[in-house]
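Bumping my old thread because nobody answered last time. Still need a sequence for this structure:
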């Protein structure tokens, strides 16, 4: 089959050691199963905030994988008018470019961004192409969190076109895919219908990486500093929902102990965190790491933290990476992740931005070796059973094939082409 994937915020698999996320995992499975994939992406790196290409570019990565990047204006902050404009430009470019390309058998578009997903679904419906919407976040609902409560009703009126687009996108999609159950229910609520066989939850998951990078200078030096220490890890984007500043507060409380904090990543709050950590010898900030560097670092860590400064039920990518390495998880997120942590006994919950509770959780795992070993074993078990990307994306690929085949058969019957 010819399959289009639309995802503008993930790292592209065009450099050695690039960190793979959902679309890259799905791409690997689909191409391994013999399909041709066209990945529509942005020419701007969402994670690194820099240009990948300076113009619209089409790149043949391998025989059955092509990446087509569209150039917007770029942006410095995830929540900003410049990002809104950037995504709107990409959406319009997709609308102009898609009709010029050979039609695919099926399209899977990520959501957010909602404006690109809207244009993708409109194109698919116009051309009788089955389309799935893969829900990763609750846009544009989340925009309201950045407005004072008294003004939210006016903000919703101002954003009425955005809410119209998300409603139409969910209602016109042939199937809804979601990264967790709360997102799935959110999507169905907008679609105003019951679940069908085309709708599924596929967790983000991750793959175990068996290629550590022991030659990286920054990793080599970092590991030497962490020798015989109890290491607490944060990994990811220093952004609005994943601001790790609470770990700086914990580090201040735990100076003098053999607990060390590694905050690996980058983002709009990186410089602020760096300044706060400058006087703390128990905090290390190695910057953005590639996949092999992460694998090496994980071998020397003990606990993974998922902080947030807001009440939200996101299910961040980093959870799966922590679990794959047997790290108990300490998380401030609500909803499904909080429930899984409690039910499966793989770590602790702490209230958002509560440094006192987080510090106590860290010390409990540090000092109670029996509890630590139990939670570590549970982490490996649940990863193997539910969150291994090999299993998740094999099932996801088969689901895509089933929908495409069913849709193609329906078209053949409709036009009298049945055999």
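Sorry it took so long. Here it is:
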């Amino acid at each position: 089959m010819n399959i289009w994937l639309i995802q503008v915020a993930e790292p592209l698999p065009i450099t050695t050691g690039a960190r793979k996320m959902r679309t890259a995992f799905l791409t690997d499975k689909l191409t391994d199963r013999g399909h041709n994939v066209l990945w529509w992406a942005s020419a701007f790196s969402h994670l690194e905030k820099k240009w990948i290409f300076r113009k619209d570019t089409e790149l043949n990565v391998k025989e059955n994988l092509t990446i087509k990047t569209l150039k917007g204006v770029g942006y410095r902050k995830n929540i900003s008018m410049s990002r809104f404009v950037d995504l709107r430009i990409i959406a319009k470019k997709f609308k102009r470019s898609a009709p010029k390309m050979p039609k695919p058998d099926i399209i899977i578009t990520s959501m957010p961004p909602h404006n690109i997903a809207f244009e993708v679904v409109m194109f698919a419906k116009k051309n009788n192409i089955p389309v799935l919407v893969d829900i990763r976040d609750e846009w544009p609902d989340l925009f309201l969190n950045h407005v004072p409560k008294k003004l939210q009703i006016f903000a919703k009126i101002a954003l009425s076109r955005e809410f119209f687009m998300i409603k139409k996108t969910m209602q016109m999609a042939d199937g809804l895919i979601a990264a967790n159950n709360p997102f799935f229910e959110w999507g169905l609520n907008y679609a105003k219908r019951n679940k069908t066989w085309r709708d599924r939850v596929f967790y983000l998951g991750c793959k175990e990486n068996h290629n550590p990078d022991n030659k990286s200078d920054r990793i080599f030096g970092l590991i030497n500093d962490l020798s015989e220490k109890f290491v607490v890890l944060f990994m990811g984007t220093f952004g609005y929902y994943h601001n790790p500043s609470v770990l700086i507060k914990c580090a201040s409380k735990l100076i003098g102990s053999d607990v060390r904090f590694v905050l690996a990543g980058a983002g709009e709050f990186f410089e602020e965190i760096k300044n706060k950590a400058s006087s703390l010898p128990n905090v290390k900030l190695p910057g953005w790491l590639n996949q092999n560097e992460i694998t090496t670092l994980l071998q020397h860590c003990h606990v993974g933290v998922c902080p947030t400064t807001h009440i939200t039920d996101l299910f961040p990518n980093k959870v799966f990476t922590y679990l794959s390495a047997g790290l108990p998880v300490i998380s401030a997120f609500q909803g499904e992740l909080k429930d899984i942590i409690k039910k499966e006994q793989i770590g602790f919950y702490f209230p958002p931005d509560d440094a006192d509770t987080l510090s106590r959780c860290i010390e409990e795992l540090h000092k109670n070796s029996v509890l630590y070993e139990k939670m570590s074993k549970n982490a490996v078990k649940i990863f193997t059973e539910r969150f291994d990307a090999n299993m998740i994306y094999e099932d996801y690929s088969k689901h895509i094939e089933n929908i495409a085949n069913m849709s193609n058969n329906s078209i053949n019957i409709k036009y009298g082409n049945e055999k």
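The chain has two domains: 2-205+388-414, 217-387. Let me know if any region looks off to you.
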